[in-house]
Amino acid sequence: MGTLLKGGIVVELEPACVERVDLRIEGERIVARGPDLQAASDDEVITLSGKLVFPGLVSAHQRLSASLGRGMPRPKLQGYEELLEKVRWRYEDALDLDAVQVAATAGGLEALQCGTTTLFDLHSSPKAIQGSLLRVGRGLHEVGMRGVLAYAVTDRRGALGREEGLEETVAFTRKARGRLRGQVGAAPLFTVSKEALEGLAEAVKSTSAGLHVPLAEDPLDEKLSVERYGSSPVMRLVDGGMLSPQALLAHVGHLSWPELAQLLPTGAWLAHTPRSNMEAEVGYAPALKFGHRATLGADSVSADMFAEAQAAWLRSRDAGQPIDVLRYLANGQRLASQTFGTQVGLMREGAVADLLLMDYQPATPLTAENLAWHVVFGLGSRHVESVMVDGVWRIWARRPLSVNPSVVAEQAREAAAAVWARMGEK
């Protein structure tokens, strides 16, 4: 039995394609594409009447655990260092395993509702490390998302915490299957010692997985890295042999051109996070200089990649360096394809069926030539009607099919209150 989507306008991002065509799906894959496909006797036929069939979007850098932090009380802050010490790290220290799973379920559900079907999550819960990635995976499994998970290894809580983090990120990477994969994660490099970096290099080698690390979110990253370890974050990664086409570097906001010139030939992916950067007041990352493997991540804000793409394009245009927003979105799908070893993002035969049905009625013609303008100024998560991941409908007619959103929200509110209370006890 298959699913036949008839009469939809099928969209691909790069090269841009907008075509009225039918799709047939069997199992987890698209098996046929054509202008007038005929249904088999046992096919489920869905008549779309001109609705968009859009590829599922990807957040290349996400912090699902932050889902419980939205709106929490926070002190007045004087710069990035206080943001870390008084907010982010206190919050992470207050997470327990139950909160980790609830946050992943709530954040994953929100992502799906926004049309994001794959997340690359960098997790940190220093007082609840062992089993934390399994809990994140369970949360994403509940809602039916595709996820790539890593634990952010750091020396912030000493050698024991460092070794537990390494063990967690390596163990999960080795056993992850299906819609879940693992990466080797690291915290900002000014919190990562020489011993930790050596451990990360060994983990990357032994798992054949890429490194996922925030880099140069703020100038403090370089300043403290040089003071503590005698070298800049970029040089530490280069000297440690950590950069490759499997590596994923987030933020990348405060690097000199010579440092970027060292990064780009390695083929590493660079995840631009404009909404998070603006919220943290860390300055604008020059995304136009990020090369041909630049993509987008939402970091600690909602995984609404339509909103992220719009913010990225508008901010880049305001800076006088407008980016190719379709390429940035498509590169997220290419990154997912590389990680899962299968084609994600193409609406073609053989690709996995991660797709959105969108009720978008444009007031102007929609073509391949002007698709980027519709993405930036028209399309949004409000148009997402149904979501399929791996050939299975996870949201239908704006209703999640595997979880009760009211229950998820209530559990998240209870967990958030407990986390906030623990923060206040410190």
Automatic annotation (TrEMBL):
The keyword Hydrolase applies. The keyword Manganese does not apply. InterPro entries: Amidohydro-rel, Metal-dep_hydrolase_composite, Metal_Hydrolase, MTA/SAH_deaminase. It holds the Pfam family Amidohydro_1. Keywords: Hydrolase. Residues 52-393 form the Amidohydrolase-related domain. It comes from the Bacteria. Signal peptide: none annotated. This is Amidohydrolase family protein. It comes from Archangium lansingense.
